[in-house]
Specification:
The protein is of the alpha+beta class. The protein has a single domain, classed as Arc Repressor Mutant, subunit A, CATH 1.10.10.10. 38% of the residues lie in helices and 10% in strands. It contains 5 helices and 2 strands. Strands 1-2 form a two-stranded antiparallel ribbon. A hairpin with a 2-residue loop joins β1 (65-70) and β2 (73-78). The chain starts with 21 loop residues before the first helix and ends with a helix.
Length: 118
Amino acid sequence: MASKARFDGQAAKPSTWLVLTNHGNVLLCVARDPTIRISELADRVGIGERAAQKIVGDLVRDGYLLRLKEGRRNRYEVNRSAELRHPLFADLEIGLLLDALRETPPPPGPTDPESSAR
């Protein structure tokens, strides 16, 4: 595999930083699979189960997720109207970001401007 060249012509070492935080990755995984187990979530995100539990707890506490008991399992609902936390994007709802990062677009709903124009 060829190394990537930087603008100054020197070979660049691969960076280790990620665009999304673990919180963002967990939220995206839950949005894709609302019945995901903590162990599966931890495996997909590449973190430990305790870290996954803590992140889910943070997301529930801060209003991004709703945890619903279904027998012995949990099911999660994403609060799509929760706003992004960074001041640059505080006026944007999390649902827009999740839609942009989904593998397949969600079906048009009643709040979708394109669906009401048809």
